[in-house]
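Lab meeting, item 3. Inverse folding demo.
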């Protein structure tokens, strides 16, 4: 595959903060790269450099073969950008927003109107196209913003947390739009804090922290890096804990862990469903009363916790992040 985006050794410094510290990224044409990381890891800084909104202090980057430093205008002609907040004029209608963007790209009035109508239809906004965008829901505003990023039919699209703040239904609708774009050949760089979003959409993932890539691979590869499956069991009667522990020990590939109250047991296993069936047979034979038991595979949440040291919900505040510095 050809490379739609390549970044090598990107460095960006704000005072004593190194927002990027030698970041490397490669996005193959027609694929989705998910860029994951805690708040302040450097995701937005990387996006701003790749989209020519910031100049790097070190390293280099090309988009569709065009250097971001040497020819920023050339890069801008080849990309579409949708940031963390919908960039729409609230006082203009949806149609007028898209027509304005098309005119800014140099289209004639007639061509701009045609393109605006095409995009309103594509994003399910035809009926709302004549209303001021300030009357739109959050999901509608995000779709309008994404439509604006596609006015010039760019081969490369950069989405910086495109579903941030959306309700579950709007998120799913946005996912469908993104899948349609990629199926049509668009290359996508996606930053997100929703790990299920990266799991669903990304062909490959790069996890960054403190401005550096700390892991990269497919979702499956990253999950396998942190270990295999495990059986999780909940007891109805805590006095049967030792018996349950013995059953799980028979199938476990490592030490069986037990919660402080003695009701929850976790056993790492290598045999997958066969290990689960063997454990169930033992528990049934010993008449252990089980409330719940299941085979759990690692998730991207587990990967994130293992790599960064905390879960996504526990990420440090943006207030002290380098990405916040970059936005000032």
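The presenter then showed the designed sequence:
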């Amino acid at each position: 595959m050809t490379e739609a985006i390549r970044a090598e050794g990107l460095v960006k410094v704000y005072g004593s903060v190194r927002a990027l510290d030698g970041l490397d990224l490669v996005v193959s044409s027609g694929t989705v790269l998910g860029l994951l990381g805690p708040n302040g890891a450097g995701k937005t800084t990387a996006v701003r450099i790749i989209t020519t909104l910031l100049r790097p202090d070190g390293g280099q980057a090309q988009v569709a073969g065009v250097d971001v430093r040497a020819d920023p205008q050339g890069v801008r002609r080849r990309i579409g950008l949708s940031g963390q907040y919908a960039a729409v004029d609230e006082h203009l209608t949806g149609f007028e927003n898209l027509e304005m963007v098309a005119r800014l790209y140099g289209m004639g009035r007639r061509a701009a109107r045609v393109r605006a109508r095409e995009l309103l239809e594509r994003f399910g906004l035809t009926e709302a196209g004549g209303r001021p965008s300030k009357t739109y829901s959050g999901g509608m505003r995000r779709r309008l913003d994404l439509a604006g990023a596609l006015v010039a039919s760019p081969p490369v699209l950069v989405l910086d947390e495109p579903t941030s703040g959306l309700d579950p239904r709007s998120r799913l609708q946005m996912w469908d739009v993104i899948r349609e774009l990629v199926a049509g050949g668009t290359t996508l760089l996606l930053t997100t804090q929703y790990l299920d979003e990266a799991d669903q959409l990304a062909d490959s993932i790069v996890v960054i922290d403190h401005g550096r890539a700390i892991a990269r691979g497919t979702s499956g590869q990253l999950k396998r890096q942190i270990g295999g499956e495990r059986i999780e069991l909940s007891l109805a009667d805590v006095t049967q804990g030792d018996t349950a522990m013995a059953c799980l020990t028979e199938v476990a590939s490592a030490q069986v862990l037990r919660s402080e109250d003695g009701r929850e047991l976790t056993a790492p296993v290598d045999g997958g469903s066969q290990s689960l069936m063997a454990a169930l047979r033992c528990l049934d034979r010993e008449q252990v009363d089980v409330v719940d038991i299941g085979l759990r595979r690692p998730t991207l949440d587990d990967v994130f916790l293992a790599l960064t040291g905390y879960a996504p919900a526990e990420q440090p505040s943006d207030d002290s992040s380098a990405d916040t510095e970059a936005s000032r």
